[in-house]
Amino acid sequence: MIGRKRKLGKKIEDLKIGDSHTVSHIIEDKDLLLYLGLTDDANPLYLQHDYASQTPYKQPIVPSVMLFGMVSSIVSMHLPGPGSHITRHEMMFPKPLFHYSEVKITLEVIAIDTESHEVTLSVVGFDNDGDVILQGKLNASPAHKPESLTGSSLENFY
């Protein structure tokens, strides 16, 4: 991939308080099976309808870490975007999300610290009924401007 230009996300100086991004996604069986296979998570509450029907949830639920993975993807791909990195997060999952539900997740910039090169984002996620299924905040380090390869490779020339 050398020579191929990739678009970086917003730099810290391009961000402002109030910037936001919202993503909607319907949780399908393939999403759950990919997550469970990747993590080797065999929790019957996430997959076995017969077990989950005997719990207070009455049906299988979506793993909370999988929901956080969706949040992480929004940070990496949209706000601040490619080149950014989550440095801290606090999440609560007040209501479970069930299979085949649509989740709508919104991130919003609520603070910018240029000195430490970090932004603070609020996170909220809603299910089909408009109920909050995740909320919290996280810190992320936006993309850094890359050093010029040609500038440093020619530094021994006048």
Word description of this protein:
This protein has 158 residues and is α+β, with helices and mostly antiparallel strands. It has a domain at 12-27 and 62-143: Hotdog Thioesterase (Thiol Ester Dehydrase, Chain A), CATH 3.10.129.10. It has five helices and five strands. It has helices spanning 29-39, 44-47, 49-52, 64-77, 149-153; strands at 20-26, 85-92, 102-113, 118-126, 132-141. The protein has a five-stranded antiparallel sheet with strand order 1-3-4-5-2, covered by helices on one side. It is elongated, with a radius of gyration of 20 Å. The two termini are 30 Å apart.
User: Approximately how much helix is present in the residues?
Assistant: 10-25%
> CATH superfamily name of the domain at 12-27 and 62-143?
Hotdog Thioesterase
Q: Report the uncertain regions.
A: 154-158
Secondary-structure element string: EHHHHEEEEH
Main sheet properties: 5 strands, antiparallel
Using the alpha-carbon principal axes, give the shape: elongated
Output the number of helix runs. Answer: 5
CATH first level of the domain at 12-27 and 62-143: Alpha Beta
Report the sheet-strand fraction: 25-35%
The pLDDT mean sits at: 88
Sheet with the most strands: spatial strand order: 1-3-4-5-2
Q: How many beta-strand segments?
A: 5
Distance between the termini: 30 Å
Determine the CATH topology of the domain at 12-27 and 62-143. Answer: Thiol Ester Dehydrase, Chain A
Structural class by sheet pairing and helices: alpha+beta
CATH architectural category of the domain at 12-27 and 62-143: Roll
Q: Using the CA coordinates, give the radius of gyration.
A: 20 Å
